[in-house]
Task: structure prediction
Amino acid sequence: MYNGRDMTELSMMAKTDWKNDELAFFHHSFQQIVPYLNTEGQVIQREIVEEIQNRGGLKNLKTE
Result:
């Protein structure tokens, strides 16, 4: 189970400053609710995906 910073705190930070486990957790969470995301949620999800890709993809996203 995820035991880290919540979205309120993370939303005030650049995605580049997120830990790998935070990216992985929120990526999975957003994937579950994609049909219900508003425009702001879609932007956040896209930024998370882009940061994961910048780090080499999910397979290379080792949790800390």
